[in-house]
Design a protein that fits this description.
With 333 residues, the protein is mainly beta. The protein is built from five helices and 13 strands.
Length: 333
């Protein structure tokens, strides 16, 4: 099967899942709220082109009853405000020197992932639980090489030379579980306030096997009723804030945030290489710290956030830590 046929199949699966979910829902008095989100992570914001160089994700989510209610009814934390989200995304990583026709074997291998995700989110009071299933492909079928070459041609930049040494085609499957809590430390919801959000997650599959723990601190004016921001190496998209119609809250707000976390990594396919076939690989670090700072604003149905991320060294021969920026835009309708 050709690469473009694989990509078309993922689009069909994505759209079919949405239509199935829409048709299976029992009618309810209040209209369902949908949210479309775009997240883009790129190291261009840091003035570099290496390691984790690009990630993009599109998500369509809805709150309220869904075809997955029987599943969530069986979860020990399934009671609360429920959101189901469908996602398509692509990630690419490269070595530090992309001008070499034959990449340094001690440098990070070229790798691309094309994936689809299905997420279940449950919020209750100050608690959040998220469960996500990811599937897709790693290797040439991810179209990462084509994407990067197209973008470099578009901006008149030199083409990376070593993609023929990228990881081989392999199906990917991964589960993600995330738990968050929210505490207001100072202030009131309708004014200036300070909040803390402890975060912990676990990932299991042939892409990532790791645990993560950290926290986010945010301060602002009319902070929205949500659970903060996240990265693509996590849930990617969190549920939208409760609308002013639900809470009687303000129509707009702004806040600044910062945080940090530690990652305990048992497996990372982009560093360890293919699961069942020989491929390039490097000796990874099992302990990877990270930090972030950013700002978010919302106005009625729109929300935007920008995050600047500092990511620790991920493999033994890595000389410097990674930096990248992340932009998230969402619209609720």
């Amino acid at each position: 099967m050709k690469a473009h046929q694989i990509a078309a199949c993922w689009v069909v699966i994505f759209c079919t899942a949405i239509l199935h979910g829409h048709a299976a829902v029992v009618p309810q008095e209040t209209p369902r709220r949908w949210t479309f989100s775009l997240r883009w992570e790129n190291d261009t914001f840091a003035g570099s082109d290496r390691f984790y160089t690009d990630g993009i994700s599109l998500s369509l989510a809805h709150t309220g009853r869904s075809w997955l209610d029987p599943v969530m009814d069986r979860l020990p934390w399934g009671k609360g405000r429920r959101t189901v989200s469908y996602e398509l995304g692509q990630i690419m990583v490269t070595p530090s020197d992309t001008s070499l026709p034959v990449p340094d074997p001690n440098d990070r291998p070229y790798a691309g992932l094309l994936f689809a995700g299905l997420s279940l989110h449950v919020e209750r009071d100050h608690l959040y639980h998220g469960l996500k299933f990811i599937t897709g492909v790693i290797g040439p079928w991810s179209l990462a090489e084509d994407t990067q070459q197209f973008v470099h041609d578009l901006v008149d930049s030199s083409r990376p030379q070593g993609w023929q040494y990228q990881l081989r085609n392999e199906p990917i499957f991964n589960l993600v579980y995330e738990h968050r809590r929210k505490y207001r430390l100072l202030g009131e919801a309708g004014g200036v306030s300070l909040e803390a959000l402890p975060v912990a997650n676990a990932m299991l599959g042939n892409v990532l096997i790791q645990g993560q723990a950290g926290a986010q601190l945010r301060v602002g004016y009319r902070i929205p009723d949500d659970f903060g921001t996240t990265l693509m190496r996590g849930m990617v998209h969190l549920p939208p804030p409760r609308s002013p119609r639900e809470t009687g809250g303000p129509q707009w707000g702004i806040y600044w945030f910062g945080g940090g976390n530690v990652n305990l990594v048992a497996r990372d396919i982009t560093l360890d290489g293919n699961t069942w076939r020989d491929s390039r690989s490097v000796d990874k670090e099992w302990f990877v710290p990270a930090a972030e700072v950013g700002m978010a604003v919302y106005w009625r149905r729109f929300q935007a956030a920008f995050t600047y991320v500092f990511w620790g060294k991920e493999f033994k021969a890595q000389q410097n830590y990674s930096e990248f920026g992340a932009l998230t835009l969402s619209y609720t309708f």
